[in-house]
Amino acid sequence: MQKLSKVLMAGVLSTSLIACGNKAKELSFKAGTYTGEADGFHGTIKVEVTVDSKSIQSVVVTENNETEGIGSNAVEKLPSKIVEAQSLAVDTISGCTISSNGILQAVENALEDSGVDMELLKKENTASKKEVKTEELETQVVIVGAGGAGLTAALRANQEGLETIVIEKMSYVGGATAMSSSSTLAQGTRTQTEQDSAEMAKEELLKVGNYKNDDVPVTMLAEHSGEAVDWLDDEGVDYDDDTGKPSAEYRVGRARMHVSKSGAGLIKNIYEVLEKKNVNVMLNTAAYELITEDGKVVGVMAHGEDADYKIHAKAVILATGGYCYDDRYISDELKKLPNSGSVANTGDGLTMVESLNAQLLNMDYVAVAGHGIKKGNSAQHTKPQCLTAYRTTGTILVNQDGKRIVNETGSDANLVAAMMKEDHVYMLMDQAAFDAYTSSAIERKYFTEEDKEQWLNENGTGITVFAHGDTLDEVAKVVDMNAENLKTTFETYKSYAVDGQDTEFGRKVGATLSDEGPYYLVEQCLRYSTTLGGVKINDKLQVVNEDGNAIEGLYAAGEFVGGVFGEHFPPSAGVGWAMTSGKLVAESVAEMLK
Predict the structure, then answer these.
(1) What is the SS3 assignment for 132?
(2) E strand or H helix at 104, and its extent?
(3) C-alpha–C-alpha distance, residues 472 and 233, integer Å
(4) What are the phi and psi torsion angles at 194 (to 5°)?
(5) Rounded distance, CA 398 to CA 425, Å?
(6) Bridge partner list, 290
(7) Beta partners for 164?
């Protein structure tokens, strides 16, 4: 569990009571310190609340397991808001709704025995509300969204000498990129030793996308992704030199990882570079409307914490991400799967361009992926760890009947198709494979050591299934799997290693699992996150309307752009497109403003 070292206190001075208005004077408590708990996004949140006879003196989150950099924002910010308002009727922290509601419920549970009028405590304290004023700002370019694409665009715009404002509705930066492994498709970087070309990269991207890609962005990605990563590297965004290995989708390795091996680390690095350049990034600032004059986009309206903003700009770049949390475009069938996408991706940009008749592409296409574990109210991908296990150990993927279902090292599309036919699938691992899988996932902050221990103790009875047993019979019994089939599958795959050929699925066989336990069955789930539709752009990354004409002053980058990937999502291409489009869109704006 994370421990908060910073205690969020509030003195009970008369001035603070005046600031809270008559509401605080009406509250009545039995003085003391109370504890409570409630469910958060990733487990139990525990709080300690201290009150005197008339007010809440402090709220301290003593234990939590919320996601670092996301749910942790609620842990850090919401307690002081409760104390300041002397009320539970406070706004949740943007992007941390479940974590925020968990804290509020835990505080309510803690104060049940304090004698307070709970209905009064849950009413809004209007006396503490601040008057919101509208401020007008001027800049050359305003970027909406501080994910990978938006931050990269800001960095390049700054380098091009453009006055830039970035606005982000969340209380943190990163978007979907922060939730990735940081693996970045990059064709032709200076560290790439295998023979490669933009033509080959484009051919493979089109093949994965079932040729449903839009030619403009897919060509940009194939031709400019390498130079984007080299440029970021030069700017102080530290990428490993290694370009990865060939895969079922790519004949050559062309994926660069950030040195942190995590999307959160990549975002942190870019953000630190921007801070040194004093680029204005306004968090908790939600854009809601584009400002237009005679059909030209000339700015954006936004709600902030302390003010509303009317931002006038020569160009607006929408890098608002996808729409995995936008019910307008997600089918009921898809909603049956866990959503592992960024909670920021609520389709805001799509709403903003509706009145401009912007052309949309591939809105029905949403990437469904495997290699995920159910975790709390969502799912967490562990794809890098799964692929490493398949490639370096004898780890296999089996169904509830104890049988293999697919070439585990094959394409993502084939894996997903196989998983869709099953109710449950599990990775079968021995101790060495399990240790490598979990240690790497913990290092990359996909889950914690405490998570692992909890799931092992639950041994298949919780949401996340980390079943284990000393023998194949024992581990099969935990998940009610056909043990005889599992043992046959185990022996059959061992024979493939001896013969050097997987006659069932065609996997390249290397190592096999140990003949000695313990053994683990880690359940894998399908999930969705990345949306593949969005606005159509031209070769300047301008948003195009239904007539095929550019909407003057309006540009797009990142997941907001439609047609990049076609019908299926290629490995590493999401971050690759974020970095590539972010760089290119800023260059297009700079060219326009010259």
Answers:
(1) coil
(2) helix 97-110
(3) 47
(4) -75, 150
(5) 6
(6) 300
(7) 141
Question: Tokens standing for 157?
Answer: 């715009």
Q: Phi first, then psi: what are they for 143, rounded to 5°?
A: -110, 125
How far, CA to CA in Å, does 32 sit from each of 24, 58, 61, 115? 17, 11, 16, 11
- Lookup: tokens for 360: 């949309």
Helix (H, G, I), strand (E, B) or coil at 216: helix
- Cis bond upstream, residue 518 (ω within 30): yes
Q: Which residues lie across from 428 on neighbouring strands? A: 396, 521
pLDDT tens digits, residue range 105-159?
Answer: 999 999 999 999 999 998 877 655 567 799 999 999 999 999 999 999 999 999 9
Which amino acid, one-letter code, is at 324? C
**What digits encode the pLDDT tens for the residues 166-182?**
999 998 999 999 989 99
- Partnered with residue 399 across adjacent β-strands are 425
Q: Which residues of 158-196 are buried (b: 16+ CB within 10 A; e: fewer)?
A: bebebbbbbbbbbbbbbbbbbbbbbbbbbbbbeebeeeb
Contact in structure between 558 and 319 (CB atoms under 8 Å): yes
- Apex 420 CA angle, 417 and 424, nearest 5: 130
AA letter at 31 = A
Cα separation, 223 vs 46, in Å, equals 51
Distance CA 112, CA 116 (A): 7
DSSP SS3 for 342: coil
Q: What are phi and psi of 75, to 5 degrees?
A: -60, -40
The DSSP symbol for 346 reads S
Going by the DSSP 8-state scheme, the letter that residue 505 receives in this structure is T
Q: How far apart are CA 339 and CA 60, in angstroms?
A: 30
**C-beta of residue 383 within 8 angstroms of C-beta of residue 570:** no
Position of tokens 């790497």? Answer: 440
Distance set, CA 11 to CA 20, 59, 220, 250 (Å)? 13, 12, 57, 60
CB atoms within 10 A of CB 357: 12
Q: What is the pTM for the complete model shown? A: 0.82
Strands 280-282, 164-167: pairing is parallel
